[in-house]
Amino acid sequence: MQKRSSATGWFLYLLITVVIILIVLTMYQIDRQWNKLAEVQATMSEQAKDIRELRTALNSGVVHQSASAGTEATSDISPAFQRAKAMTQQADYAQGDWSVDAFATNLKTLTPLVSTDAYASEVQGYVLESLITRNPDTLEWEGLIAKSWQISPDGLTITFQMRDDVMFSDGQPLTAEDVAFSFNFIMTDAIQAPRERAYYEKIKEVRANGQYEVVFVYKEPYFEALSLAGTLSIFPKHFYEPYLKTPQAFNESKGLLLGSGPYRLADPKGWRPDAGSVELLRNDRYWGEVQPSFNRVLWKIIQNDSARLTTYRNGEIDAYGARPKEYAGLKNDKQIMDKSHNFEYMPPVAGYSYIGWNQERAGKPTRFADKRVRQAMSYLTDVPRIIQDIFLGYAEPAVSPFSNTSKQHDANLKTFSFNLEKAQALLKEAGYEDRNKDGVLEDKDGKPFTFKLTYFESNEDTQRMVLLLKDLYARAGVKMEPFPQEWPVMLESLNKKDFDAITLGWTSGIETDIFQMFHSSQAKTDGDNTISYKNPELDKLIDQARATVDETVRMPLWQQAERIMVEDQPYTFLMRRQSLSFVDKRIHNLQMTKLGLNRGSLPLENYVPVAMQKYTK
Length: 617
Hints:
single chain; alpha+beta; D-Maltodextrin-Binding Protein, domain 2; Dipeptide-binding Protein, domain 1; Dipeptide-binding Protein, domain 3; 3 domains; five-stranded mixed sheet; four-stranded mixed sheet; membrane; Peptide/Ni-bd; transport; Peptide-binding protein
């Protein structure tokens, strides 16, 4: 039997139909709005590109005139951008694409001053800028944000004249006030910047003299006065000044990063360690005379060495730093070599690795406070064998913090060679003997000579080295327990000086100032003398060398300091390693300089030709 529909049913049907039509129309309208927004964004991006190109042309003096004018294009690029400018003249030069790399560990924070590792520093280098930069060919200083500078006859005052066309990535102009603020911000005790304060304490004041002139006044002469002032990272006052009222918020922050450099964070306050990567976008307001090539710079977090190699092999990252153990095989790998540039090099600024012996823990001296014990440990650390067995010869022994090619180095000094007998004699002299005949030395109180060696867990070569050291130390009756740690945990242990011994590395410079690592004044919480090493004679030499501007007088002082460090062995100095790099052939204009490979150097000098680009966003 058929049923007839009621009026109410028809009304509900009509109402539902109307609602559906309204929803469809709304979705259509939203879709149109999104398309329109995308068009606007694309237009703005194109306009920004046009403005960048126009600004570059104006800054460089390359202004195209009509044929009837008969005037040739001229170039007036400042020295800091000359190499980058030469890149843009290559026939296949193009902007676009991404630069993609990998970090071997999670980053704890990107906030400048709060961060202490080289990974965060690499990211910050793309965002923050300074007054001057070093020429990679001549190693001389050149103006970046500074146009010129003058040094007073007594060396205590440096005056910089600044460019007036620099702005931060949020559009605010960069002025002398920002430079003065950056120094004052660092020197504020409530801000977590003890390492930087240790260096900048030689500066009496930094003051703005008008909008575009800044003056640095030193308390006393300092051999790196120009470098110290000129390489100060410039923080935007309007962005960081509010944190003077809430310093704890700054100290605990994870991603407060804003600057005037060629790249920027999408959100200068929004990066978090759990992001799984670090991504920088092109700064469309960049003031530079040559604009950076890449639209984005990305670092993926890939902690496993094998995974990084696989990722490189698959073309998902642009470079791979090979371990010595795999290097020879990769050079014979047709797939790798067909796609790669290959580089082996050790620049004069190559850092060194070391084992640091903690001399004070919880306010009490440790067994490593005894120089004889430290010397014995260095005699037991067979560096040539480590270099040969673990690093296959792609390294050289480190005598001290000073490079073997540096004027600071005394060429007559030798490394500690493996000597089991000398080590055993020194340990016995220090009171260590195998009293219960169990194969492990004990002190006079019967406590066994055991300790933990902290190291970064994701580095396979370091892990192999530590296992070798365990066997070497055991031959003398010293029981070492390998203690692998995650990177953030290691940094925390360093800051608190809560470890027995640790193996890490330091970066180096053309001339290395060792105040930060070895001066007694830096044996404090969050100071970089993490092993609490104190030697008044060394302190005096460091102070004298730092205050000596005359190089001919300063270098003998550094060499005296080096002799003390070799005698004291606060670290067992291990090695300086060669870089063994593979870089994807899509990356062009790779060159070796006196500072090493120019990839990632600023101003940026690399690009990808259009035909080889693969990231279009």
